[in-house]
Specification:
131 residues; mainly alpha; 6 helices
C-alpha cells in the first residue's frame, strides 16, 4: 500500500498534536498531584473530623490511581492497538493508550503506564513511516 507525502505529513502533524496533548495532561497531573493529593494543608482538611465535601472525590481519585487502573487501561489499549495494526480504529486506540498513559505515569502508575505509553507511541509513529 502506497502512502503519499501529504498523507504522511498529516499523520505526522496529528501525532505531534497528540504528543502535545499528552504533555499537557502530564502537566495537569503534576499540578493535581502536588496541589491536591500531596499538598499538606489539603490533606489536613480531609483528615479533619468533618471533612470537606470534595474529600470523597479526592480519595476516589487517589484510590483509582493507586490501583493502577488507568495504567492498566493504557497498557491494554496499547497492546490492542499494536495487535490490530492494520485494522480500522487501531490508531484511535493507540492515541487513547498515549493519553491515558501520560497522566498515569505521574500519578503513581508508572510501572504499567510507561509500557502502554511507549507501545502506543510506537504504534502511532509506525504510521509516519508509511509501513
Amino acid at each position: 500500500m502506497s502512502v503519499g507525502v501529504q498523507d504522511v505529513t498529516a499523520v505526522r502533524r496529528s501525532t505531534w498534536k497528540l504528543f502535545y496533548w499528552a504533555v499537557a495532561l502530564c502537566a495537569l497531573a503534576i499540578a493535581f498531584r502536588y496541589l491536591v493529593i500531596e499538598f499538606r494543608p489539603v490533606s489536613r482538611l480531609c483528615e479533619a473530623d468533618v471533612p470537606a465535601f470534595w474529600c470523597g472525590i479526592r480519595e476516589f481519585i487517589i484510590t483509582l490511581f493507586y490501583s493502577d487502573a488507568i495504567g492498566l487501561a493504557s497498557l491494554a489499549a496499547a497492546l490492542l492497538a499494536f495487535l490490530l495494526y492494520r485494522q480500522r480504529g487501531s490508531r484511535f486506540i493507540a492515541a487513547l493508550a498515549v493519553l491515558l498513559g501520560a497522566p498515569a505515569i505521574v500519578l503513581y502508575s508508572a510501572d504499567v503506564a510507561v509500557p502502554g505509553f511507549i507501545i502506543g507511541m510506537l504504534r502511532l509513529l509506525r504510521d509516519e513511516r508509511g509501513a
